[in-house]
C-alpha cells in the first residue's frame, strides 16, 4: 500500500479510543482524533493536505505530538439531525391527534392572550387614575383584574393539558423541540412562579397599596407582572416561529447555534409584535362584553352609567389596538415572503387564500360593530348633533369597502356558468378580487373608522383656539388627500404594473393611513386644549348598542382561531419547516370548512369558559343573607 | 336570565354565520406530496412528460409563482417556450452558469436559480443577481434527479420541442435496486448519470456543503481536492470511520460501499478531487 494512503489499523483504533477517553477526561483535545501524519515532507505531504480538517497517522510510523488546543463549548456539542418519524411512530388514540391538540392549543392561547393583555391596560388605567386623582379609574382597573383572575388558572390548566397531549401524541417532535430549546424550557417554567407571585401581590395588594408611595410600589408590581407575562409570551412565540422558520440549526435540523440564535428567527419579532397588539385588542373586547352584560342586566342608573363607561373604555382599547394590527400583519407577511416566497404564496395565493374571504367578513364585522358602537355612543352628548350627518357617508364607505373585500377572485364554476360569465373571472367584479382592491378597501375602512372615533371624541367638546377653522380645513385636506392617494396607488400600481410595484405601493397606502391617524391625534390634541366641554350622560345609550360589544369578542375570537389555522398550515407537511417532516395521518392542510367547524367549537368553548370566569368573579361579590330561621335560632 | 339567553343566542348565531361562510367556500384539502410509484419497465416518454407536468403543478409547487401576469411572482413558464427562451438566456452576458443547451440550462436553473435571474424578478435589493426561487432539490420541495428530469421533459415537450432527457432505464434501476435494500415506497432508484446526480442521490449535501468550507454536519468540501488525494477521498466514502476530521462525530453512514455502484463512487471521487478552491 502506498505510504501516503491514510489508514488506521485495529491497533491504532485502540490507541484512538484511549486517546479519546484521555482527551475527554483531561479536556485537552476533546473529541479530536488527532494523529500525526508523515512529517517532514514538503507541502504536498499528506499532513499538509489534510491538516485543515484533521491529522492522520500513517501505519507503522510514530505519532507526532499533537498541539493541544482547548475546544470551545460549541465544538463539543454533538450534532444530531432532526428525527424522521414514520407513520407508525405516531400514537393512534382513535381520534385525530391534530384535532385534540388544535382545541387545547387554541383554548390555551385564547386565555393566555386575555390574561396577558388585561394587566397591560389595567396598569395604564391605574396609572391614569393615580395621575388624575380620579378614583373611578382605579376602581375600574381593579374590576378588570377581578374578572380576569380566574383566567390565569384556566390558562395554566389548558397549557398543562396541551403539553401533555403534545408529549403523548407527538413524542418525536417534542423530543426534538426539547433538544433544540434545552434549558429555555426551565426558564419558561420558572417565569410562571414569578408571574404568579406578581399577580397575587398585585391583585390582593390593591387596597393595601392604594395611595401615596405605596401606590408606586403597587404600580411596580403591576409592571413586573407585565414584564414576566410578556417574557413568557415571547419565549413561547419562539417555539412557534422556530417551527415556521427554523434558525440556529443546519439543513438536517442539527443544532449548530446557541439558544439565542435558535430563538431569533426571522419571524420571531413580527409575531411578537403582532400578538402583543392583537392580545390588547382581544382583551379589550372580552372585558367589554362583561361590561355590556352588566349594563343590560341592571336598571340602576348609577350602575348603568358605570358599566356604560366601562364598556366604552373597553371598546376604545379594542379598536385603538386593532387599528395598527393590519400594519403589524403586513410586516409579518413581508417577513414570511422574505424568508420563503413559497410559504408566503401558500398563505396568500395558494389554497389558503380562500380564508382571507372569511377574514374579510370577520374584520368587516369588527369594524362595523366598532363604528356602530361609536355612533350609538354619540347619543350621550348633545354636541354630537354637529357630526351625525356624516355618519351615513361613513357607513356607505364601510359597506362598499366591505363588499369589495369579500369579493372573491375566482369561484368554482360549472362549464355553463363559465360560458355565461365569459371566462373564469367576471369582467367587472374580477378585478375587485385581487389584492390591490382589498388593500384600498382595508385602508379606507381604517381611515373612516378613525374618523368615527375622532368625531365621537369631538362630540362633547367645542374648540376655543383661534385657528380652529384652519385646523379643521387642514384635517379635511389630509383626509381627502390620503383617501385619494390610497385609491390612486391601489389602482395605478395594482393594475398597470407588475407585482413587485404592487407590493411596494401597499406600503405607501399604509403610510397614508398612518398619516391620517397621527395627524388627527396631533391636530385634535392641540385644537381641543382648553376646549369648552359639553355635558356627557353616561348610561344614555340604546340597549342594542351593547350587542356590538358582544359581536366584537366573538369576531375577535373567531379571527384568532382562523389566523391560527393559517399560521400553522403554511408549514404544509412539515412539523419544523424544511428540517422535520410531518408524517402523521394529519399531515395535510384541512379544508376551510373543517377549519371553520373546529374554530366554531373552540369559540363556543371559550365563550362557556369566559361565562364561568365572569360568574366566578361575581360570585366573590355575592353575599348570602342569613336565613330567617338561623336569625331566629341565633337570637334564641 | 332573559339577558343571558339573549346574549348567548346572539353570540352563537354570529358564530354560526362565520362558520357558514367557510362552508360556502370551495373545500380544498392541501395534501402532503406522495411519492409516485413508477414502473420503469413500462414507462414511455409520454408518461414521463405527463409525470413532469404533475410535478410542475403539484409537488414542485412551480405554479405558486410561475403564473401569468399580473398574478405571477416569476416568469410565466407555462406561457413561454422554454427551449427558445433558454437559448436567449444562455447568450445573455448576465448568464453566470455553465450550461450549454436548454436541458442543461433548465436543470441548472432548478438547482441553482441565481445563475440567471430574469430582469425585474430578482430578490429585492439584489439588483437581479439573486433569485427568490428555492433550489428544488432541497427542502421543502425535494425533487429527485429523476423528477427534475421529468419536469425538464415536460417543459421541452409542452411547446412541441424535442425531448432531450433520457428516460430512466429499467436496467439502471435494477442495478441500483439490487444494491439497495427495499424501502417499500417511492420510485425505483435510478443509476446516477452525473456526479451531481450521484451526490444528490446519496444526499451528501445534507451534511456537507459543496460550495464552501462551511460546516453543516460534516466539513465543507469545496476544497477537499486540495486537502485529500483521490485514494483518501475514496476511502473516506467507503470507510468513513477510518479517519475522522477533527471535531466531528462519526455521523457519516458506513454503508455507501454497499449502496453505490462502482461507477457512481468513481464519479463522486473524481468530482470531489477536482474541488480545490
- Mean pLDDT, all residues of chain B: 82
Task: Give the tally of β-strands of chain B.
Answer: 0
Q: Helical content of chain B, roughly?
A: 40-55%
Q: What is the 3D shape of chain B?
A: globular
Measured between the Cα atoms of the first and last residue of chain A, the distance is 114 Å
Largest sheet report of chain B: none
Helix/strand order of chain A: HHHHHHHHHHHHHHHHHEHHEHEEHH
List the strand order in the largest sheet of chain A. 1-2
Q: From the alpha carbons, calculate the radius of gyration of chain B and give it in angstroms.
A: 24 Å
H/E element sequence of chain B: HHHHHHHHHHH
**C-alpha end-to-end distance of chain B:** 81 Å
Give a quick precis of the structure.
The complex is a heterodimer of chains A (636) and B (277). Chain A has a domain at 98-320 and 346-356 and 544-619.
Structure description:
The complex is a heterodimer of chains A (636) and B (277). Chain A has helices spanning 10-26, 46-50, 73-76, 97-132, 135-169, 171-181, 184-204, 212-244, 259-263, 268-297, 301-322, 325-339, 341-348, 355-377, 388-406, 415-421, 435-458, 468-495, 499-527, 546-569, 592-619, 628-635, and strands at 461-462, 532-533, 574-576, 580-581. Chain A is globular and about 70 Å long. Helix content of chain A is 68%, strand content 1%. Chain A has a domain at 98-320 and 346-356 and 544-619. Chain B has 277 residues and is mostly helical. The longest helix of chain B is centred in the N-terminal third of the chain and has 23 residues, at 2-24. Mean pLDDT of chain B is 82; it is low at 179-189. At the A-B interface, helix 2, helix 10, helix 13, helix 14 and helix 19 of A face helix 1 and helix 9 of B.
Amino acid at each position: 500500500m502506498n505510504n501516503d494512503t491514510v489508514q488506521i489499523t485495529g491497533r491504532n483504533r485502540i490507541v484512538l479510543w484511549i486517546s479519546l477517553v484521555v482527551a475527554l477526561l483531561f479536556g485537552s483535545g476533546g473529541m479530536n482524533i488527532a494523529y500525526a501524519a508523515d512529517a517532514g515532507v514538503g507541502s504536498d505531504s499528506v499532513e499538509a493536505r489534510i491538516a485543515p480538517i484533521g491529522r492522520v497517522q500513517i501505519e507503522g510510523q510514530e505519532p507526532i505530538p499533537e498541539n493541544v488546543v482547548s475546544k470551545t463549548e460549541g465544538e463539543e456539542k454533538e450534532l444530531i439531525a432532526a428525527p424522521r418519524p414514520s407513520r407508525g411512530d405516531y400514537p393512534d388514540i382513535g381520534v385525530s391527534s391534530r384535532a385534540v391538540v388544535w382545541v387545547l392549543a387554541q383554548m390555551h392561547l385564547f386565555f393566555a392572550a386575555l390574561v396577558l393583555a388585561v394587566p397591560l391596560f389595567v396598569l395604564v388605567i391605574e396609572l391614569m387614575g393615580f395621575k388624575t386623582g380620579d378614583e373611578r379609574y382605579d376602581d375600574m382597573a381593579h374590576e378588570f383584574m377581578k374578572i380576569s383572575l380566574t383566567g390565569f388558572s384556566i390558562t395554566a390548566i389548558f397549557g398543562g393539558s396541551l403539553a401533555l397531549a403534545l408529549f403523548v401524541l407527538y413524542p418525536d417532535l417534542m423530543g426534538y423541540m426539547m433538544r433544540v430549546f434545552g434549558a429555555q424550557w426551565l426558564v419558561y417554567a420558572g417565569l410562571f412562579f414569578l408571574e404568579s407571585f406578581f399577580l397575587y401581590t398585585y391583585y390582593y395588594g390593591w387596597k393595601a397599596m392604594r395611595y401615596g408611595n405605596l401606590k408606586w410600589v403597587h404600580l411596580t408590581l403591576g409592571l413586573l407582572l407585565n414584564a414576566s407575562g410578556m417574557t413568557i409570551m415571547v419565549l413561547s412565540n419562539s417555539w412557534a416561529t422556530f417551527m415556521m422558520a427554523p434558525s440556529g440549526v443546519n439543513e438536517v435540523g442539527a443544532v449548530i447555534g446557541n439558544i439565542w440564535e435558535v430563538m431569533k428567527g426571522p419571524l420571531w419579532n413580527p409575531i411578537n409584535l403582532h400578538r402583543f397588539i392583537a392580545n390588547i385588542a382581544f382583551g379589550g373586547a372580552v372585558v367589554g362584553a362583561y361590561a355590556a352584560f352588566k349594563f343590560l342586566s341592571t336598571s340602576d342608573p348609577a350602575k348603568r352609567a358605570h358599566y356604560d363607561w366601562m364598556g366604552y373604555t373597553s371598546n376604545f382599547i379594542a379598536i385603538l389596538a386593532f387599528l395598527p394590527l393590519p400594519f403589524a400583519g403586513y410586516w409579518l407577511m413581508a417577513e414570511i415572503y422574505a424568508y420563503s416566497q413559497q410559504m408566503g404564496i401558500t398563505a396568500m395565493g395558494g389554497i389558503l387564500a380562500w380564508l382571507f374571504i372569511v377574514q374579510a367578513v370577520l374584520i368587516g364585522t369588527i369594524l362595523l360593530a366598532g363604528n356602530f358602537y361609536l355612533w350609538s355612543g354619540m347619543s350621550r352628548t348633545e354636541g354630537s348633533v354637529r357630526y351625525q350627518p356624516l355618519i351615513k357617508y361613513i357607513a356607505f364607505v364601510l359597506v362598499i369597502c366591505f363588499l369589495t373585500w369579500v369579493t372573491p377572485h375566482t369561484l368554482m364554476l360549472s362549464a355553463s356558468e363559465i360560458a355565461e360569465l365569459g371566462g373564469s373571472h367576471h369582467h367587472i367584479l374580477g378585478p375587485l378580487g385581487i389584492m390591490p382592491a382589498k388593500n384600498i378597501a382595508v385602508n379606507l375602512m381604517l381611515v373612516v373608522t378613525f374618523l368615527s372615533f375622532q368625531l365621537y371624541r369631538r362630540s362633547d367638546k367645542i374648540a376655543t383656539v383661534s385657528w380652529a377653522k384652519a385646523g379643521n380645513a387642514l384635517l379635511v385636506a389630509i383626509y381627502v388627500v390620503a383617501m385619494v392617494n390610497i385609491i390612486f396607488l391601489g389602482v395605478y400600481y395594482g393594475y398597470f404594473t407588475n407585482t413587485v410595484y404592487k407590493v411596494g405601493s401597499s406600503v405607501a397606502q399604509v403610510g397614508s393611513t398612518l398619516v391620517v391617524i397621527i395627524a388627527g391625534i396631533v391636530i385634535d390634541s392641540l385644537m381641543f386644549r382648553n376646549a369648552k366641554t359639553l355635558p356627557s350622560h353616561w348610561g344614555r345609550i340604546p340597549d342594542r348598542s351593547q350587542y356590538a360589544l358582544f359581536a366584537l369578542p366573538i369576531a375577535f375570537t373567531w379571527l384568532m382561531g382562523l389566523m391560527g389555522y393559517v399560521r400553522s398550515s403554511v408549514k404544509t407537511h412539515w412539523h419544523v419547516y424544511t428540517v422535520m417532516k410531518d408524517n402523521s395521518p394529519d399531515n395535510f392542510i384541512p379544508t376551510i370548512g373543517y377549519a371553520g367547524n373546529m374554530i366554531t367549537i373552540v369559540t363556543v368553548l371559550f365563550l362557556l369558559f369566559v361565562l364561568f370566569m365572569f360568574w366566578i368573579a361575581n360570585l366573590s361579590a355575592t353575599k348570602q343573607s342569613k336565613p330567617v330561621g338561623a336569625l331566629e335560632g341565633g337570637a334564641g | 336570565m332573559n339577558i343571558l339567553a339573549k346574549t348567548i343566542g346572539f353570540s352563537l348565531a354570529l358564530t354560526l354565520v362565520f362558520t357558514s361562510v367557510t362552508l360556502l367556500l370551495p373545500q380544498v384539502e392541501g395534501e402532503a406530496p406522495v411519492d409516485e410509484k413508477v414502473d420503469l419497465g413500462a414507462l414511455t416518454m409520454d408518461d414521463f412528460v405527463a409525470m413532469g407536468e404533475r410535478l410542475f403543478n403539484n409537488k414542485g409547487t412551480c405554479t405558486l409563482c410561475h403564473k401569468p401576469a399580473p398574478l405571477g411572482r416569476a416568469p410565466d413558464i407555462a406561457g413561454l417556450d422554454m427551449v427558445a427562451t433558454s437559448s436567449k438566456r444562455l447568450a445573455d452576458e448576465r448568464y453566470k452558469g455553465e450550461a450549454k443547451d436548454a436541458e442543461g440550462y433548465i436543470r441548472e436553473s432548478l438547482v441553482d436559480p441565481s445563475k440567471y435571474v430574469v430582469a425585474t424578478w430578482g430578490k429585492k435589493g439584489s439588483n437581479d443577481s439573486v433569485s427568490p426561487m428555492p433550489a428544488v432539490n432541497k427542502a421543502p420541495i425535494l425533487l429527485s434527479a429523476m423528477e427534475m428530469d421529468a419536469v425538464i421533459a415536460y417543459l421541452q415537450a409542452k411547446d412541441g420541442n424535442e425531448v432531450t432527457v433520457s428516460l430512466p432505464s429499467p436496467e439502471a434501476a435494477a442495478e441500483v435496486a439490487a444494491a439497495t435494500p427495499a424501502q417499500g415506497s417511492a420510485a425505483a432508484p435510478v443509476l446516477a448519470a452525473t456526479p451531481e446526480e450521484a451526490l444528490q442521490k446519496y444526499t451528501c449535501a445534507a451534511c456537507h456543503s459543496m460550495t464552501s468550507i462551511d460546516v453543516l454536519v460534516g466539513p465543507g468540501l469545496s476544497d477537499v481536492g486540495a486537502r485529500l488525494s483521490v485514494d483518501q477521498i475514496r476511502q473516506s466514502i467507503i470507510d468513513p470511520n477510518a479517519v475522522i476530521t477533527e471535531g466531528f462525530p462519526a455521523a457519516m453512514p458506513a454503508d455507501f460501499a454497499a449502496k453505490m455502484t462502482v461507477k457512481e463512487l468513481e464519479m463522486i471521487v473524481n468530482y470531489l478531487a477536482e474541488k480545490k478552491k
